[in-house]
Every structure is written in structure tokens, then in C-alpha cells.
Amino acid sequence: MRHRTRHESNLCSACRQPDCDCSRFCRPGERRHPRRTDQGLPRRRHALLRRGDPQQREDHRLHEAACRRTQPRVPRDVQGSRQSRRQTRLAVMSARPACAIRPLDSRGVVESLVSDFRSRRMCDLREPGSRLPHSLLPRGARQTQPLAKDWNKLPMTRPTTQIFDAAATARLIPYAALVAALKRASIEYAQQRIASPERLVVPLNEGGIMLSMPATAPDLAIHKLVNVCPANGPRGLPTIHGKVMTFDADTGETLFILDGPIVTGRRTAAISMLGVETFAAAAPREFLLIGTGTQALNHLEAIGELFPEARVWVKGSAPARAEAFCAQHHDKAREIRPFTQDGAAIPESVDVVIALTTSRQPIYDEAARAERLVIGVGAFTPAMVEIGARTIAGSALFVDDEAGARHEAGDFIQAGVDWAQVGGIASVLGNPALRPQKEPVVFKSVGCAAWDLAACRVAREALSGG
């Protein structure tokens, strides 16, 4: 290593000139820049100032000016010891703008900058044709040509994917728009314009399951992942967790993510309302909800929104449950009453009965009536049954998903129905003349991912301002 002469040792390490304003802060031979406390800058990155290129010093000055716009002020009480200064310096540097660029070799030319660099207003300091500040180059790289691009015209990165919680998801998919979207999706699904394969079931710990349900259409693609964990009750956690991811059908990019349980609950209630709209002879005046769980609440909200003048009866596994449910959600409908007469016949004024339980014994097994529509929702496995064989035997039978109902509609499976006599709701939606006239109807819904896709269409329309 060559020893410096005495004359060289007395030169300022920053500007390499004797008797400058900087040199009075530096001892002979010391290769560090003065602290510059008047500008609030700690000692850091002095390699730029050790170089004699005025352009590099100017780049350094501009870069430090931009950093001071965003870096937090350092409290005086944490600058005491060397260790605290080091910690403060690291904290300040971590708060600086992200000025990363694409990797370059030692003789490469800067082609582009990341959009975050422009978003933090560093572009205000440069003009097209100027050089990039040396402090922003990777170690060992040097810029041999000026920038060829206008920094203000650099492409921005894609926005962050929006994730909506339960409340926001509910606001995006109102029931009226959801029923219309489900009507369209039902017809497209029957025409195989929507692909919705059978759901994949994967076991989790303690009897839980993970459900994977994708669906695609020419305009949209979705994938719903739902975890059902029955052991969550003692933990104080919801039994169902999940998300519905929405994708662009052309590029595959993620558009937004909705809350899975809310999408499932609202589209299930909406498909029941579509059944009422399709099969009821007239606008219902009275409903009976059998069940007091989450699905009962979703259906109560849907009835209150779409049939605001209707009266709603609620029947629970015990009279106290029905009374508590009505007291808690009395504001969801114009009139809501508990049905507490065990063993009593359902009033003849009830136009629609909706079963919303996971019972393994029939909870509704009355004689079929032409003026009453019966809808089964809760039984989704062959071992579950809500509607008895007596009701099913005297009714015209319809389902929302003909393929899924054959191995999920426990009511029909246990009744031993002839599946050739079971129709899909899409056939009636496409041709209203096929709706049974003066004949009792039982409509069974089992759900599929195509209905989740319909909900995502509604959300996309709301987000786009349509």
C-alpha cells in the first residue's frame, strides 16, 4: 500500500482541497466527512464525497434532500451514546424511500426505475437525459449513459389486491342484485357456460374439513376456500372461516378477495329467494323459518329486503331459542314472531316454509299443499334430512344443482326419489311455462361454486361503479 505524503494527508477527504470549510473539521489523514449537524445528517455513506467528481457530489446532495422529506426527525434524547446513535441511524435509513432498481452489471446502463421511486417524489429532482444519483446504483455498478426515459412516464406497478371484511362484503352484494345475478348464473351453468366442478374436501384436525370450490366463466374466475372446524366453539372462534378470491379470466390476475362465510350465507339465502320468485304462485305474505342459526339470520335479512311487508315466523329446536332469536333480530323484518307451540300444526296462512337446520330427522313432514312452497336448505349430506317423505311424495321436485343434489340432497336421497322426475330451477327460468300450476313444490338447494361466481359478479359491478 502506498503511503501518502504529508501534503496529501492535509487535504480534505471530501473535496480534496486544502484550507476549505470542511478541512477544519477533519484531522490530517482522517477519511471521513464532517458530521454536518447543521443539516441534521449523521455520518454515513461518505464514499460519494471521497470521489472528486462534482456530478457525484451534486447527486449525493439531491438524494439527501429527498431522504429528508420522508425520514423521521431524530429526538435529541436518543443521540447520547454511540450505540444509540447507531440504532437511530439504522431506524432512519430503514424509513427512507425504496430506491431499488433492476440489477446491473459493472458497465450497465440504467433502463428503468421501480414505480415506488416515482411515487415518493424522487422524480421531481431529475429530468430526462440526466444521470441517476450514484447512491442509487448497486454496489460495483456505474452509469455510463444518461437516462433515456422520462421518470414521470415510467409504468406504475399494479395496485394492491383489495381484501374486504365481512361488513364490506355484505355491502357489495345486496340481495336484490344477487338474486338477478343468480338467475343469470343458473341458466349459464345449465348451458355449461360456467364450469363448476365438484368441491374437493380435505380433512383437518379434530374433525375439521377444508373445502375447495373453483368456478370459471368467460368474464370471471373465482376460487372459494372454506374451513369448517366444529371444535372452534370452546375456543371462542367461528366454526367457518374462508375467502373467495376473484380473478381476471384472461390474465389470471387477482382482482379482489371477499369474506367466504358472508358470500356463502348471502348467496344461499338469495337462491332461496330466487326459488320463491320462481315457484310461488303469488308474493308471499307469511314465511316460516325453521332454525335459529346463521342461515336463518341470512334468510331473515333477505326477506326483510325483498318482501318488506311479509310476516316471518321462527321455529327453533326449543321455544326459548326462537324467542331469543326474534328478540335479537326484531329490526330485520317488519314483523317477526316466534312459533313456540310444540307439535302444533303450522298455520294455514304460511305461504313459504324454509328449513335451515342440519337435522338427521325430518322436522317438516306435513301433507303437501298446492298453495305452500317448501324449501330445504340445511341438509347437505346424505345422512341429513329436514323434509319428510310424506311431503316429498306429493310434490313436484326441483333442485338448484342437479349434479350436486344426487349425492348431497339428503332429503331426496333418503326418500328414494326418482331422479328422472327431479328438475332443475334453470329449466323453469328458461321456460316459465314449465312451472307447475296448482301443484305442490319442494325446492332443494345444495349450492355450488357457480353461485359464488354470481356473487363476485355483483361485487365487481359495485366496485366498478356500475
UniProtKB/TrEMBL annotation:
Residues 50-67 have a biased composition (Basic and acidic residues). Keywords: Lyase. The keyword Cell membrane does not apply. It comes from the Bacteria. The keyword Nuclease does not apply. GO terms for cellular component: cytoplasm. It holds the Pfam family OCD_Mu_crystall. Residues 31-91 are annotated as: Disordered. PANTHER family: KETIMINE REDUCTASE MU-CRYSTALLIN. This is Ornithine cyclodeaminase. It comes from Paraburkholderia xenovorans (strain LB400).
